[in-house]
Amino acid sequence: MKKQVGVTLKSFITGTILTIILSIMDPYIVLVNNTQGFTFDFIAAGALVIFFIFVGLINVLTGLINKKYALSGPELIVVYIMLVIASAIPTKGLVGHLISILSSSYYFATPANQWAEKIVSHIPSWLAPTNPEVHKYLYEGLSKGMKIPWGVWIIPMLSWILLMIVIYSVSLGILVVLRKQWIVNERLIFPLTVIPLEIIREEERAENSLIKPFYKNKLMWLGFIIAFLFMSWNALSRILYFIPPINLGRWYLIFRNTTAIGLSFSFVVIGFTYFINLDVAFSFWFFYLLSKVFIGLCSITGFGLKGQMAPFEEGQLPSVTQLCMGALIMLVLYGAWTGRKHIKNVLKKALTNDNSIDDSDEIMSYRTALIVIFIGIIFITVWMKLTGLSLIISPYFIFILFIIFIAMSRIMAEGGFGFGKPPSMPMSYLTHTVPTSMLDNSGLTSLALTTPYAGDIRTTFMTSAIHGLKIVERGSLAVKPIALVMIAAAVISMVTSIITTIHIAYTYGGASLENSGWLFNGYPQLIWSYVSVKVDNPTGIFHVLERWLWAGIGALIMFFLMFMHHRFIWWPIHYIGFPIVGSYLFNHAWLCIFIGWFIKAIILKYGGIKIYQKLKPFFLGLILGQLCCAFFWSIIFYFANIRTGTNIWVGLP
Fold this sequence. Notes:
Elements: H1 9-32, H2 45-65, H3 73-86, H4 95-107, H5 115-118, H6 132-140, H7 151-185, H8 194-200, H9 218-239, E1 249-254, E2 259-264, H10 267-273, H11 278-301, H12 318-338, H13 340-352, H14 366-386, H15 394-415, H16 426-433, H17 441-448, H18 451-454, H19 461-475, H20 482-508, H21 518-536, H22 541-567, H23 585-606, H24 608-614, H25 616-639
Antiparallel strand pairs: 1-2
Helix pairs in contact: 1-3, 1-20, 2-3, 2-8, 2-25, 3-19, 3-20, 4-6, 4-21, 6-20, 7-14, 7-19, 7-20, 9-25, 10-23, 10-25, 11-23, 12-15, 12-22, 13-14, 15-16, 15-19, 17-21, 23-24
């Protein structure tokens, strides 16, 4: 089958413009407008909304003026790929955390906390500006007549952009190794690709029609209107104070008030769950409820690991964190064992150029991919050494980093309702599984500086990229230029987001941004306070061994679940929910997953596959209705200078 050309000058320029718009828009919405961002989660809400509007309105109007200027289906795929890559970078994806973590260590340093000696002195000058005044004005805003000190940020930001290009390139190399196993051999369903593929789907015998059939579907618009109007009520409650808001989430305490369980409502989660396999959806809500029983019993009896939770550790108890982290590692290792034949072929092709093994469908050859991975890992190791982490610990950090990236990409590919967090992040996991005698002040500071791209992980470049590759495969596009397009989109988004975020901080004062004050206050102080505590209170070997034991138990449970699922067709419990069930996002998601699972089960049982297929547009409309509602009111609130936030979830809080 002949591959279609999607990477054209027209598609790349369009994708660049939309990427820049997204990368400017999201920091303003989050930091200035005090509204939930559109690049927070794996659903890539900003990409979906902008793409939906562009294909249904702007591309149509352009085609009416002159049809040759309208983008074709393959070109639209390239535009979406650039947008979904960009969705992993602004605010929580990378840049918001990056700017705040670099400045906060200087700004919040006092004689009392001794951060100047414990932390600041260990940050290399090429990673952050060293002048305290630079950070003072970033947090407090510039005085009248002062100019933003762009010059002092150039070298640090170029250094970070270089690191991220390497990490993203390694991620693409790993995906080249895994793509065929996941997409062709295992046929993972990639629920998050349903909307963009439906948006660009052509009518039969009407190729390249301007108005796509998706926009003509009445069921889609019915779902859209229901979600849009329902969610608009909360936005109106912020303008018209006599309108009471709808409480979309409640908390209840169980097990003698030791354990919190959430009940929340989201059209987005219900909608995406409709496209997830029933056993996968069951796994999510089943393991969530099971985890609450376990947490409750441990809280009452005192059973389990002792100690405090580290930053961005999920699960409420250290025992749950370690169980889930062990399961996450096993998910990747067992998956590698399952795909060992394919991985063997990859190595054989890379080393011997065996003509019987075809890698022409990959964005780079297997040999190139392995070279990129090898050089990239060496680069990251050297980087970590230069920033203070020992050469002994660096490989362990890199292993955990990419285990998390691969696992979250796999979970979203197989059970992608769009939300979730790993049980821990590399910094926290290392400080619990390595004696801190091996991590001096420089090492701990180096790990803290990894948190912008490996801390509050709700989206990743790798996850966006593998979904982009799935869409490329479905669209039968020529693949070779795609890797460069993805890296270009990432660089464009990084540069735009960095400039925008720095400008906002110096203009408004970082300390006053966001109602919650999370990005510039809560998050960096949480990280640096943890580093300070670890410097003063080293982790002992018994503490480490306990956590290895619990992680090992979690890995064994995951091995059993995966073994039973792959070997016995009658086994009812899918394994995919276990590793991330401790995520606090599941407190808000589990009920909606249950509702979506129940609705799908009833439809399939009594209506059959025909009714299930017919109702797909309605559930896609529910998703887009809530996302577009949040987008619409965010824009209205910004231009109306209303800084209270819209009170509309972009999926989940």
